TrEMBL record:
Protein keywords: Oxidoreductase
One Pfam family this sequence matches: Flavodoxin_2
Record-given protein name: NAD(P)H dehydrogenase (Quinone)
Protein family membership: Belongs to the NAD(P)H dehydrogenase (quinone) family.
Ranges for domain Flavodoxin-like fold: 1-199
Domain of life: Bacteria
Record-level Gene Ontology MF annotations: NAD(P)H dehydrogenase (quinone) activity
Amino acid sequence: MNVLIVYAHPEPRSLNGALRSETVSHLRSRGHHVQVSDLYAMNWNAVVSPADSRAPQGGARFDPSLASRDAYEAGLQADDIAAEQEKLRWADVLILQFPLWWFSMPAIMKGWVDRVYAYGFAYGVGEHSDTHWGDRYGEGTLAGKRAMLLVTTGGWASHYAPRGVNGAIDDLLFPIQHGILFYAGFDVVPPFVVYRTGRLGDDGYVRTVAALRARLDTLDVIAPVPFRKQNGGDYAIPALTLREDLAPGEAGLHVHLDRTA
């Protein structure tokens, strides 16, 4: 497999740095090809701006979406954006690795998404009609690829349990797994989450690495999170609401999972 790791941590000697090295080493030892986009080391520009296009700048009002579309279609995107898109085309599997900061990814990684997910590349594709509302949520240009989150957090696993004070980890990661990855077509496998990182210790680290290696060995076969496809018949179009006969009387993020799959 071709595996792209997009990595966001500012300290290479951190736990995240060690886990990234373990991931790269293990995947390569199994014969896989690996590229790493180390966003802090790259000094990645996280800010969307008119400079994302190499087209001459006129005096018109800057519209980020339309400017993104025009630059993508004309082959005039900034070089760093085009390079990351090429990595995504190359990859069979995408791993987003980051510490959970304030219940989300670090800003630099969100900026990677903002700029690399160009109009026409990751969104704004496909037919829009009364029966098909664009190629997204299970379809799209990145369909057929897999993705996984590798996340570290200082909180205990119980803090992120369904009744934990921080909220269920699957709910916290829903905007990333469903709204960023599945949206663009990825099959999203369950996240690999490391809890209570400040108290991991040597024995905990050894157990974590063993579990991570086991997960990496199943990347191509583990069942993905069963998100419902937008155009698969479960949602009314164009309202894009779940059919009344599916999870009747229920609401919340969990209704977008097809537990019968």
